[in-house]
Amino acid sequence: MTSIGVLQIAIFLGLILVCAKPLGGYMARVFEGQRTFMHPVLRWLEVLTYKAVGVKEDVEQRWTHYAASLLSFSIFAFIFTYGLQRLQGILPFNPQHFGAGQVTPDLAFNTSVSFTTNTNWQSYSGESTLSYFVQMAGLTVQNFLSAAAGISVAVALIRGFARQEKKTIGNFWVDVTRATVYVLLPISILAGLLYVSQGAVQNLKPYTEVTTVEGAKQVIAQGPVASQEAIKQLGTNGGGFFNANSAHPFENPTPISNLLAMFLIFVIPGALTYTFGKMVGDTRQGWAIFAAFSVMFLIGVFVCYHFEQAGNPILANLGLQTNASSGQSGGNMEGKEVRFGIANSALFTTVTTDASCGAVNNMHDSLTPLAGLVPIFNMMTGEVIFGGTGAGLYGILLYCILAVFIAGLMVGRTPEYLGKKIEQKEVKMAMLAVIATAFSILVFTALSSVIHFPEKGYWNSPGNPTANLSNTGPHGFGEILYAYDSGTANNGSAFGGLNANTPWFNTTIGLAMNMGRFLFLLPLLAVAGSLAAKKKIPSTAGTFPTHGPLFVGLLVGTVLIVGALTFFPALSLGPIVEHYLMHDGKLFSMILLPASSSIWGIWS
Amino acid sequence: MWEQILPGLRIKIFMTVVLGVGYPLLMTGISQVVFPRQANGSLIKAGDKVIGSELIGQSFSKPEYFHGRPSSAGGGYDATASSGSNLGPTSAKLVHGTTKMDDKKNEVVDFDGINLRIVHYCLDNDIAYESSVPLDQFKDAKGELDEVKLIKAFNDDKAPLVFTPKAPIPADAVTASASGLDPQISPDSAHMQTARVAKARGIPADQANQLVAQFTEGPDLGLLGEPRVNVLKLNLALDQQFPVKK
């Protein structure tokens, strides 16, 4: 690790910390319906939306209606995104003439679920599959709306804690509109222009044909990239315009745009902790969560940075320089861009998987094993380290419920959080969410590792799912584990060596994304409804304070222990064993395996 | 019931217009006026012919040019197929390379691998090395290296070919970038190539080194990212200042 690398990490976290209070306070006002400095500019659009949608601003919903609205919102989002992709051949803004042939029904299903659930898993590569119209009207729109839905659920859950003896938790349509109009849209416009100033493209032209200096032909893909890039990061979506995502020089041209990207990913999740504190009437509660986020973030980033800078001993033996110097970055440069080097790649990897973003500025499949373990584990926590826009906050509140429950068991008292008794219903719902995600990740991974398909069949034309891998041995297992982990956690980044564009993977990863989104979110809305109806009990000397270092430690411990206990066996079969084999100099060949064998490739 | 469902349809239609058409078109409009060069891909022209983008790397293989990084985008620097290798740290393919049979049943290189890249890097740039078997044994009738033979030798389980450079190779010089379109190389990798470039152009190596130093940029704001050299811009400057004598 270099001092300038560490300094860049510190500056990044500092920026997020500085913005938490102003943006968080602004969001609290927005969602409580108070006037802000943006109202003179944007109130007309808010009012126009209510008119167009047919919603009364001051009518609130019970949790069941709130949840039904969310489901309706998601179903129409799914249908639209599916339809636009399949019909792209007859729609405008399609200079490369892509049609339904590029988007098979299973791929369109996967992509629609992906952009409805804020995952942005991509089985396709953008520049050779989708028209500009689908990218804008289909995907850019969902980048906004799925993020707005996440923020809404978080706000509804906060209201559950903040209110007492109320039957309602807010109005979904109003929350979604406010999140879009006052938070996501204005920041995206500013950030999009900053992106263009750095070199991100923003046009509707056909791809540019050039004759290179040595006389070869090169076709350069273009498109309305910057506008999508801004909301892709801000909404923790992560779906790239191009296949290489934020490693592509047109999506992420400079170290400055790279810092902007990471800032956009964390800024709302960081600020929502303050919004939370403000709305429940005790900002210390919000800062405690911010502190827990920061501790878990810093552990991840330094583990990742350390192992990437140490590099791959197998390549060092061949004569590659792994120490950083003033003239080169050293470390593991496979799958990395020179302008980002090791520090900014490791930082980006941690940020994008802490939050449920999934944009990548380096190829995670080529990470050294224990550096690659960091994104896998981050996603396994359910994205509760800053987390997705909204999703991070409602995720960590679930762990807060579990943490006070565990503390309550230790001392034999009914657990309380923010003056609300945590009882059977809340704990059951929290556990349902934890179990559903673990089930989705582990069962689908296991299934894909062992299931048999005939070659050239419909479900998986390469044959067994293991034939879709680019790596064998433990790393190949890691590719499958990463895929379902990423889908379930609604992250969307990938170990890109897995060829996931087959009906089997498109369908199962699509199901995993739905389970990870809705089996997490619906139980939490039920908790919100149940909490809002409860009385607040005044705190006494016996109340466990939830704003001090003790609680932060308990919360971090709960997240890490639940994650570790659930997933350690799977992790040890993948990255952990690979780490030791790498230091032993073991390599795995891509030898086509007979149909009956498993992913455990041939030792070489 | 419909009270909860219908707004879902209406908001989707309304927002598709506002966010899916209005927002990107507004952004395109502003960008085309305020940042026309960047918004259209930072293209570089020679006369009125476009010869590339300063942000998108392109293939260089002639000795008089600086070479970029290995690329996994399509057949190499294919700017419609951005991609990394996606090979993991314990991949034999990544380290030793692979061969395949082409349509005419000739064995050809499928993936070059880092070992073979190091061999080429050493030979191209006159870097001293040790080889467990003399490289002459891998040359064909024309005296050129037989890459298929080399890859097979590296992959040999029992007595693999061991090739070790005597100077450390900058890691970026022989590894593929994430996008396959990385426009830059590290300053160290550029300096290791100056002797070859200078010789091919008949100029002192110092002049080439000075040009590299002049084209070394970053960290941005003195702090962000890594120092780097844009290969296309450097090569264009070379052609301008020290044209190849024909």
List the secondary-structure elements of chain B in sequence, H or E.
HHEEHEEHEHEEHHEEH
DSSP helical segment count of chain A: 17
> What is the number of E strands of chain B?
9
Q: Which quaternary structure do these chains form?
A: heterodimer
Low-confidence stretches of chain B: none
Strand arrangement, major sheet of chain B: 7-9-8
According to DSSP, the number of beta strands of chain A is: 6
Brief rundown of the structure:
The complex is a heterodimer of chains A (604) and B (246). With 604 residues, chain A is mainly alpha-helical.
What does this structure look like?
The complex is a heterodimer of chains A (604) and B (246). Chain A is mostly helical and 604 residues long. Chain A has a domain at 22-281. In chain A, 60% of the residues lie in helices and 3% in strands. Chain A has helices at residues 3-31, 39-53, 63-86, 105-116, 132-162, 172-198, 225-234, 255-279, 283-310, 313-317, 341-354, 369-380, 391-411, 424-450, 473-488, 503-532, 549-583, and strands at 208-211, 217-220, 416-417, 420-421, 588-589, 602-603. In chain A, the strands form 3 sheets. In chain A, strands 1-2 form a two-stranded antiparallel sheet. In chain A, strands 3-4 form a two-stranded antiparallel sheet. A two-stranded antiparallel ribbon of chain A has the order 5-6. The relative contact order of chain A is 0.12. The model of chain A is unreliable at 593-604 (pLDDT under 50). In chain B, strand 3 (98-101) and strand 4 form a beta hairpin. In chain B, helix 6 packs across helix 7. Chains A and B meet through helix 1, helix 2, helix 3, helix 5 and helix 6 of A and helix 1, strand 2, helix 3, helix 4 and strand 6 of B.
